[in-house]
Amino acid sequence: MDIAVLVKASLDVNMIKADSEGRILFDSIPLAISEYDRNAVAEAVRIKGELGGKVVAFSVLTWGPVDKRAREIENVMREALALGADEAHVVVDDTILPGDVSVTAEVLSNLIKKTGDFGLILAGEGSMDMMSAQLPVRIAYKLGYPVATFARKIEVINGAVKVTRDLEDVLQVVELPLPAVVSVTGEINQPRLPTLLQIRKSFAKPYKAYTISEIGMDAPEKLFPFDDIKLVTVSRKNMIIEGENLEEIAEKLIDKLIEEGVVRV
Questions:
Q1: What is the mean pLDDT of residues 90-114?
Q2: Domain extents for the chain?
Q3: With left for phi above 0 and alpha for psi between -120 and 50, is residue 46 left, alpha or beta?
Q4: Which fold has domain 3-215?
């Protein structure tokens, strides 16, 4: 059974940059593989080991400019290949930048249909930059497949997939007919860092980039704007509480917390 796995080249949230007014400098933030997508790739490789077939990684460049980011998204997909995917297909096109989740879902669903027949499509529960958690559900809708989200365990049995879903306060077990779409949580596995040999071998694996016209799509009429997004700033009050002893300091602290509305009596 061939497995498709969705991989996003996300803004590296550990490298956020902003100007003096707090506006995020998107073009200056490097791209990195989204953390939950590592889990999705590792799970796809595990299932492939049990059932055979191949693992194909798919992505869409959602952050520009293309002349800078084309190399970055290839590096991200080479990491997915080093983690065990067999080939990678991406769409890199100026007309869909910056990425809108509805457009990204349309592009990916068309790319997946163009590339082959997949019994299972895996994705991370959300990307580390936008974390909308919408993409797997949108793709399932467009492909007409059943979908299960927030999976912490996946079993493929007799033409169906059994999924244990993590709903915070309860675990839910569902069974879906194949083909299906499943998004995974970080608890599903512990991805290993690729070895140097795996990284070197990844450059021998197929990697293909497309424009949207090459997958039979026209440029979208409108994209969600990312023109003026600012960092949330938190200012501290820097209050200093002094006293003759700990008891006096504690009393003053409690009074101040009550005054600020942090503690109610």
A1: 93
A2: 3-215, 235-265
A3: alpha
A4: Rossmann fold (3.40.50)
